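Predicting structure from sequence has reshaped protein science. With that in mind, we have picked out one protein's residues alongside their backbone shape tokens:
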Amino acid sequence: MTDTIDRTPAAAVPPEQIKAIPVRHYGRWVAGALVIAVLVLIGIAFSNANIHYNVIPDYLTDGTILSGVWHTLYISVLAMVLGLALGVVLAVMRMSSNPVTSTVGWFYVWFFRGTPVLVQLLLWYNISLVFPILNLGFYKDEMNQVMTPFLTALLGLGLNEAAYMSEIVRAGIQSVDEGQTEASHALGMTQGQTLRRVILPQAMRVIVPPTGNEFINMLKTSSLAYAVQFNELIKRAQDISSTSLAVVEMYFVASIWYLILTTVFSIAQYYIERRYARGSTRNLPPTPLQRLKRNLRLFGSFRRPEVAR
């Protein structure tokens, strides 16, 4: 009789439980403590400073300050529109096969990007030293009467912005595949029609993000217009500080308003970028408001994010 082999499987032995020991990052604790200590010291220094913080809320809604906010927003929008329109023209000039127009476009960008905005504003403000009389044939007047602080600020900020916008637009146009242009020409479109109907709409995905950054920067750069006596926010704040002697307090008021303006337009820029990203991204990431609502629902149902349905 042959021996039978016992093929009954042995009882499964459970593996030993792994005990995970987290790695201690002492450097992070030290760095965090140092940052908190520096913030506390800065807070103590400002709290002990000779600054009347109680007057800041009163001046935030002062009529003079609100007038400065309006002029800041007004000149920023107009200068940005001028810079964007001229930037498109300059970008086309730089990409032209005509050596004269491409050279003029390159020289414009080189000059206005290479000189400070404040210097350009002062040059426009004193342009009457070069052209005492403005004679257009149908209109003639002294340049001092024509070049008002508003016009000086508009030309100084807008023409400078055009140099930067031309590079942004040129980069956006060059990001579109050349096959799009060839296909448009095969359909009988002219160069101008191809640019308006095919190239620029596709280039907007590349143009919009830096354009939004440029506008937010324009809101702050417009503060340089105080040097040509334009009544923007900084100029209005200085007018109040010259009579109330609340110099630093007015700078705090101006800073708060700049933060409000840049925050509002940063939110608008975010949603505009999402709109133009729909052509390249199928599943857009959730907005901050959508993430907040999702987290509130998870918190209310006491579910972990990975098991929530």
Observations:
- The chain has a mean pLDDT of 84.
- The two ends are 62 Å apart (CA to CA).
- Residues 88 and 269 are 20 Å apart (CA to CA).
- The beta strands are 133-135, 140-142.
